[in-house]
Design goal:
paralog of FGE (formylglycine-generating enzyme); five-stranded antiparallel beta sheet; four-stranded mixed beta sheet; 7 helices; 339 residues; binds calcium ion; 2 domains; alpha+beta
């Protein structure tokens, strides 16, 4: 009797523990599935929000643009309510559809947190003549460049609010202080730290400085003249804060006219760091838009002129070199993003 009773008890224990293990496996599976659905839903919501922000910038969404993306999102919502794992692929489909819509608008509005966003403009691949025969010797020889890959470029210089949202500390090192003002007194190395932090947040090496060729291509916006709007330096004040109108200081970004590709303050306000090291001529420069970087160069390129400089310094082709650890009240940057 004692033996039989023991056998039953053991069997009961074995069954119970088997049921326990299966139950735990099932529960773990359900947790993972819920996690996948939750992550996918979050991706869809972020992509939808970014698209809506891009629509707000563009001022139009396009006829029926959202229909398919919203249908995929709704499929996800229905499946999620029924605890269905089919919700995850539906949400991912919605996320990708919203991203495609934003790409079609040519505008991305990146959430940096704390209500701060960064708007980027799609720059298509194409060719242009880089440099100038009329400028300084370092702007020669004028040469053909083919930007082989489209990219994204921030519509404005990085502001102090954007700097603070990414770096978590205020930009009071700047000479002029204000959220909408361009951040300045940031060295080339400080900019790299900003970009590393931003990339870590999005989980990929997407953000970087523009190359010098990309910068001039985007500044010219299809034009071959001294400025994005033509040759008349007398019109510069409509497009730029420079010595002639700035009153000895930086100004909030995006207040002057943009160039025809929708980029503000490419001329003036603050000089902008590029990725390239400094060369005092274009002899031997790459022609595919890539960065021209040599390890033994002591300087990095800056572009576009500033509140402190005259009209000649604000020309599309004008260039200077700066020590990568150098900081100044007339030097900031803008962000480029891989396609
Ligand atoms: Ca500028």
């Amino acid at each position: 009797m004692a033996i039989a009773s023991f056998t039953v008890s053991l069997a009961t224990v074995l069954v119970a523990s088997t049921v326990g293990a299966a139950g735990r496996r099932q529960a773990a599976h359900a947790t993972r599935a819920a996690q996948r659905v939750g992550d996918a839903r979050q991706q869809a919501l972020s992509a939808r929000e970014e698209w809506a922000a891009a629509v707000a910038v563009a001022g139009q969404a396009g006829e029926g643009a959202e229909r398919e993306a919203r249908a995929a999102f709704d499929r996800g919502e229905s499946a999620r309510i029924g605890n269905g794992e089919a919700a995850a692929p539906a949400y991912l489909e919605a996320a990708s559809a919203y991203r495609a819509l934003a790409d079609r608008l040519g505008i991305r509005s990146l959430d940096l947190g704390g209500g701060v966003r960064m708007v980027l403009v799609r720059i298509e691949a194409g060719g242009f003549r880089m440099g100038s025969d009329q400028g300084d010797s370092d702007e020669m020889p004028v040469h053909d460049v083919r930007i082989t890959k489209g990219f994204w470029l921030a519509r404005t210089e990085v502001t102090q609010a954007q700097w603070e949202a990414v770096m978590g500390y205020n930009a009071s090192q700047s000479e002029f202080y204000g959220g909408d003002l361009p951040v300045e007194r940031v060295s080339w190395r400080d900019c790299q730290e900003f970009l590393r932090t931003l990339n870590a947040r999005v989980g990929g090496a997407l953000f970087r400085l523009p190359t010098e060729a990309e910068w001039e291509y985007a500044c010219r916006a299809g034009g071959a003249a001294d400025y994005c709007f033509g040759e008349a330096a007398g019109q510069l004040g409509d497009y730029a804060w420079y010595q002639g109108n700035a009153g000895g200081r930086t100004h909030p970004v995006g207040q002057r006219k943009p160039n025809s590709w929708g980029l503000f303050d490419m001329h003036g306000n603050v000089w902008e760091w590029c990725e390239d090291t400094w060369h005092d001529s274009y002899e031997g420069a790459p022609t595919d838009g890539s960065a021209w970087v040599e390890a033994d160069s002591a300087l990095r390129v800056v572009r576009g002129g500033s509140w402190y400089g005259d009209a000649r310094r604000c020309r599309s082709a004008c260039r200077l070199g700066g020590a990568p650890s150098g900081r100044s009240g007339y030097l900031g940057f803008r962000v480029a993003r891989a396609p």
